[in-house]
Amino acid sequence: LAESMETRGGGTDRRPVRLQARGITKTYGRRAVLTDVDLVVHAGEAVAVVGANGAGKSALLKICAGLLSPDAGEVIIDGRLGYCPQEVGLFGFLMPDKHFALFGAGWELTRQQARRRGRRIAARLDWDARQRAQARHLSGGTQQKLNLTLAMLGDADILLLDEPYQGFDRGSYIDFWHYLGQWRDAGKAVVVITDMLDSLDRVDRVLELSATERGAR
């Protein structure tokens, strides 16, 4: 895997480092997915991760989220972390409010606090979470909005977002990038995997990952 970083602007960044990944290497069998990848994200900064299928983008975010162990390298996190996977991680028979209560407990929120906060975040994503429908009956786009809401429920300092707009209509997709700018301006460190290259002007830096056909040695 080849890795490169494009940086907008210059000079020394004095903002706190919220996420630092150093020398991340991951192989599956004989296939090298990630090789010696570095990623540093400051508070108030948005970084896009791009690359072809199989380049290791989702693996990198899972490693940063602590859900996957690297073969080499380390990840240092400073702050509360929210993670939105590409695949919807919901309980099909639970309604949105039940999801808020369940996930909110992990953030030490009461049921009432979690419900209020979840509904407020959902409304900003142009979705009324008060509807009494099980998650399995929600549309694909609405399920992903619930997925994203849960990632933000704990007021995280670091947001790791793996193509979080899957299934969004055009209006919701445009709104997402607008909100990403607001999260960054609020001091959050945001890492987003995207294949929408026309939106890269909305982020501060771009990390490009390239797939390789070489087997691991």
Description:
The chain is of the alpha/beta class. Helices cover 29% and strands 29% of the residues. The protein is built from five helices and nine strands. Strands 1-9-4-8-7-6 form a six-stranded mixed sheet. A three-stranded antiparallel sheet has the order 3-2-5, covered by helices on one side. Helix 2 crosses helix 3. It is globular and about 45 Å long. The N terminus and C terminus are likely disordered.
Using the alpha-carbon principal axes, give the shape: globular
- Which whole number gives the mean pLDDT? 89
What composes the largest sheet? 6 strands, mixed
Fraction of residues in β-strands: 25-35%
Coarse structural class: alpha/beta
Q: Give the strand tally.
A: 9
Helix content: 25-40%
Q: Within the largest sheet, what's the order of strands? A: 1-9-4-8-7-6
Oligomer: single chain
Quote the distance from N terminus to C terminus. 13 Å
Our count of helices gives 5
C-alpha-based Rg, rounded: 17 Å
Helix and strand run: EEEEHEEHHHEHEE
pLDDT < 50 stretches: 1-9, 213-217
What's the arrangement of secondary structure elements?
Blueprint (H helix, E strand, L loop, with lengths): L1 E6 L9 E12 L2 E12 L3 E6 L5 H8 L7 E6 L3 E4 L11 H11 L4 H14 L15 H13 L5 E5 L7 H16 L3 E5 L11 E6 L7
Parallel strand pairs: 4-8, 4-9, 6-7, 7-8
Antiparallel strand pairs: 1-9, 2-3, 2-5
Helix pairs in contact: 2-3
